[in-house]
Amino acid sequence: MHRAMHMRRLSAAATLPRWRYARFSAASLSRTALLRPTQPSSLLHLRYHRRNAHVNLGLTNRTFVSIVLPDASSKLQVDTPAPETSALSSDQRESVVAMLKARCNALRNDNAHYAAAPEALAAWRQDIEGIEKQFQPLEQSELRVEVIRAYESGVAIASKQRQFDLAAALVDQMRELGYSPTVKTHQYLVRNVALEVLATSQRTAREDLRELLKETPGGTWEREMLTMINREELPVQYKTDGEFALFHQRLIAGLEATLDAYERSIDSQEATEATKAKKKQERSTLPYNEALRVCADNGVAFTRMLKLLVARQMTPDVETYEALLLGARWNEIPATISQLLHSDIVNQLSSSSSISSSEHVRLIWVNAMKAVMNSSNKRFGSISASVSKTDVDQLRKVFLFVDKQLSSAFPKFQFATAEHHAEVYEMRIKAAAACGLMSPIKKALDEYVALAPLTGDGGKPALSKAPFLSALELFSWSPMEILLISHGDALARGEARDVSNSPRVAELRRTLVRMRRRMERAQKAEDLADTPANTEHVESAKEGDREPQQQAAGTDRNAALDAKRTRGLARRLETARVLKANQLLIKEHVERADKMVNHVLSKLLDAGYDVESDLEVSNKLMEQYKTCAVRYERRLTQGHKNVAPLILERVFKLVQTVSAHVKSGDLDVQDPETREKLRQFFEYAVSTAVRFWRREETEALVRKQQRVLGSKTLDPLEYDLLIFQRVTNADVSGAHALLQEMHNAGMTPSQAAIHRVAIALLYQLDKLPEGMEQLVTEEGGAAVPIPTEEVGEAGTDGELEGEVGEEEHEDAAAKAAADVALNSELTAVLNLSDRDTIEKELGLGGTLKFDDDDHSDVDNAALLSPDIPQTVEDLASFLQDWYNLHGVKPMGKTAVPVLARLIETKNFPEFRRLLQILETMDGGLTPAAEVWLEKRLDQIGGFTLDDFRLK
Asked: In Å, how far are 68, 571, 798, 844 from 511, measured between CA atoms?
């Protein structure tokens, strides 16, 4: 019956012209869905706080007695109305409330009286049935509100503890006992759908992986499977497209089922169609809006959210728009804003000065700005994503439109609290920074100060530090601007005088001019030799002395060699011009970002904050340097690598400043809070140097941290960074020694650290002499990204240096003194790296070191580990040892390359041993690794895993 009603409802929705969405575009569907008449929010007079993260329920630690009763639009569904005059004494009511409160507290797993789910459900039923037996029906109806409140609180507690079955069982029980769940309870159940699906999606199940592989073409199954293995431990949004689509499919199916259950609870079997239609109009939008928020939090497509809205025949209210804004991307954001502004919601919110109205205006602003930031992150956030000027300009247009429209809709809106005011401007500034817009940030800061609510302390404005710190995030946008520098921009900039005056460019140009002059002299000499008199002289010597002929041949060879060298020098000069132009363009972008930082710091000073010794400011700025390095890590081209010394110069200056405050006593290292901030500060600094592949600077920063904090021991995350750097520099022994250092300090290494060392060891074994294990280059190379020299410049250097070497073997006595000097100069010029020479022109050599750094070679000598694994068999034992010592299980992407090598070499005894080691670990053989093994073994000879397991 319900299914038939549901189909009729969908059919009716499809026949309505305004709600028809089949074959419509996203923008058209947005306009159609949101043009329905809007209604005021069901929580317009409630104050609530909600977190938008999909992993957090946003619940507070409270008992049911603290729940605020909803208003008329979201009233408790009680069959029997409460009497106007109380039939219960205060003692009776307090006794029942105390009993129900004890039931709720017993659900908390940190409570001494905690009861497991079966016992808790039995105790709840016993207590509720006892209440019904003890009191008269009139009294029972008065207590119904308290019982329903208790169940709501119980569901909230169970949901927060991720006890989804218990939460559902409590709802089923209250229905069996004749109590209808509140709308808030249904909200918890909707949110639980996402939490439960996420909990089961950490690792994709074996059955799901097998089904996904069936849809993969036969020749590409292994590539797809290795991608799944590589992303197995990542959150679901970073998994493969197939896995993410499967997650969405289950999420939406769960949401639909939960909303169906909510609608069934509204309708009754005996109700007429007219009554059902009336109830449908009066139903609360809270569960539906919660479903939209769940979809937005978990990356469901905006069009799919609109389809859910249309299919349920919902009239959008302010919370609907808040949820839709959170899920909108790019052009969907202006479309949603436009529909919101065409409704009557803006007038309702603007005409009210309540806390609820302030909360809704805050959420509209915050969610719209989050949508802009999410659009930026989705398009530009990946370290392998390309950056185009068209996309950047489009995103900026979206932000400017949204900011202008909302500013016009809520001009000088007086927020109810200073927190609301600060958060709105913080998010506006963050979104502007995510688009690289400097002027809107300055304007927003000025507005924030001008419109800030006044405090009771002398009428001073209540200013938070957060909006100012958010403005510093503009610095980390400079990488995007630099990545937009094209080769044409560099060529155009290379014509400027400051590029021509570069010592390296001038040196190459001067050498090239001299080479061309020598070629001109040689050409004139050749033309002179071609005169009739010289020709007759050469002919007469054909049968006699051969020396004139040899001289002529040598002259031709020298001319060809000079021509080749000249062409190479011209290419080197062009490369040097581009490098210098890029360096100057990058420097200009970074200096422009510095000006914005100084502007923000001056604003902070005007607001009464001490920016000199404030670690929050220093940490925020250092975080931006780290963000620059992360965004650049795999995007740096030859022309962009000049950014590393410029950013590191700022890192070292900031470290010097903070260290000076520690030394002067302005910062107390012994204070736990200060020490934690300093630890975070240095972690950002070290990470920046690591991501820029600067080993010497990394080690200098680590030693500085140890001196400032007075401790030789690093944090696990810093060990991870250093291990990563050792591995990428092919220093496997040093990386292994760092693992041993962590063990000696009682620290547990991360799975990522074990993975990096294991794959580096596997890669190193591939380089051993004949007779040692030989590995696949793809496995080692993919897991150990060792930076290489730039091919363009290195290739040119090698070619020209070889030519110079050939020239050195020629007869020097036959050359003029000027040619000898020129050749010597040419050799010296070509032996220098253009990149290194131009980088030295920045004059940063002295700034990328510390004066009190007394580093000696003893430190490096200590990082030697003679006990590193020497064979693949040793590598299997290495994985087992770290599991036995610290319980660190190898990830699937760690074990699979080792297993693949053993299979390839047909070392089945060792393969059987490693398989046994992995299966004895709790979850050691991951689902993705097992499915890959099944396919690989079947491919090489029809084997199964059971063939290698212990009988």
From this structure: 84, 13, 18, 27
